[in-house]
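Catalogue entry: protein

Sequence with per-residue tokens
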Amino acid sequence: MHRLKQFAQLWSLQTLLDLPDRLKNLWQQLIGSYWFIPSACVLAGILLAPILVTIDEHFDRETVRELSFAFTGDDEAARAIMTTIAGAVLGVAGTTFSITIAVLSMASSQFGPRLLRNFLTDTPNQFVLGAFIGTFSYSLLVLKAIHKYDVAFGVPQLAVTFGIIMAIICALLLVYFVQHMVHAIQASHVIEGASNEAIKNIHYWYKDRCDIKHQRDVEHQDIEQFHTWSATPIYAPSSGYLQQIYLKSLVTLSQDYAGVVQINANLGDFVTDRNIIGYFYQRPANHPDNRQQTNTPKLAIVPRAPDSLFWQRFAGCIRIEQRLSHSNDIAYSLGQMTEIAVRALSPGINDPKTAVNCVQSLTSCLSIMMRRQPPSSYHFYRPSSEKSTSKQPAPDKTKSDNSTIEKVSHKPRDAILAVVTHTPKISDFIDTSLGEIRRYATADLMVLKALCQAMVDLNYAKVNNAQQQTLLHELTLIERAGQDNLSYQALVDDLSAMCAQAKQFILSDNDQHQYFAYVAKFDAHIHQALQTQSR
């Protein structure tokens, strides 16, 4: 009974509050595997063949012959057609798989192994392969249903007709597959896909506008006090990469144990089973929130130390995997474009134009982040006021010990601090994306000037002085990198002049309503000479 009680508490409705997120992660894992869509197509072919054969048995033959596109041959012709279709689509499926493996090998060497998932999860590619092997499975089962000596029912004409239609569709899909793979291996297409994924993750985490309630949460009194409470270290349940934090389940867990859970690790961080990834701060016994009523009448939340059930439930509140995989992590999406740029700058590839395209795509993503409200690090438990005020006895003023408790329980219940997470700042994202490219492009003037232009473009999206100082600091690092590594003094002077003009533009008044265009010293001299000559 004790084990059953623990199991019921572990999988109670309170721990399944994040069920949509858990199902979404499961769906992403299924789509991310290369076998799911092809297996579904094979299953569809296996189910479709007996269904059409059964329809053929109860269908009027004369009606089928009136259809101009329907197959009306004998059993030998039907057997030959289905045999040809089965052999042809199986051979084409093998060719398609070989082309896919070749593309994956090239993408791994040129774009990086982390980009392989974008090719494996390419839905059109999976559907084409699934259509081929699904048609093969369908043809085998229809071929089995063709009976030579059955007078009442000899040839499943509708099933054979549908097989011919599927073969024609597979031929068209082969042409589409070749055209799709030609575009898929282009660097611009890969960068666009990574950029769209990053923007989708930004929209998931960042709000469109500043939330007033977010500002009230930041001023919550427990935010400045919970660090002084009794703390228990939280260790990672296993080694791997932190992929997901289920906040609703974690909020419920912290409230059940009357404390605050602080997670210091970021999404995508590698942790071991001995890493301290956070702390559980237990509220003092005399804290006002301990007197708040739970859903059960006359039952107050009593602080208790973490036990074995706490660690079991906490292990279910986070998801740790042995390898980095797709998630809603913004840093992972931005890191894909950074990896493409870094590999493009390597001596083996030497493609600075691709690195410039990555810088421009990263600038677009970072610009969206700078204009939006970042996610709050503080997550609160907000109990229902109806449940807290209903079915409660009237306060008894003769009992001085309980008068305070009853008075608090009948007041409107405020939000209770439950979980504190670590939220990276915009300066962190700039340093790990554009800053990483700067460290590898120290001797390339084209990329350094593109980074300088990126700071100017990001200046149009700034909303506070901290962001402005981050851009100015990055411009200083770009100028210093060029001064220390560029080969010729003329290149150094060109970069220094552009950085100086960019700093002057960022620091100028009304800079977000002006157009920035870098004018080199030589171009300015020529322009001045032409004006003098025209006079």
User: Anything to note?
Assistant: Strands lie at 230-235, 240-245, 259-263, 270-271, 276-282, 318-321, 378-381, 416-421. The chain has 22 helices and eight strands. The longest strand covers residues 276-282. Confidence is low (pLDDT under 50) at residues 385-413.
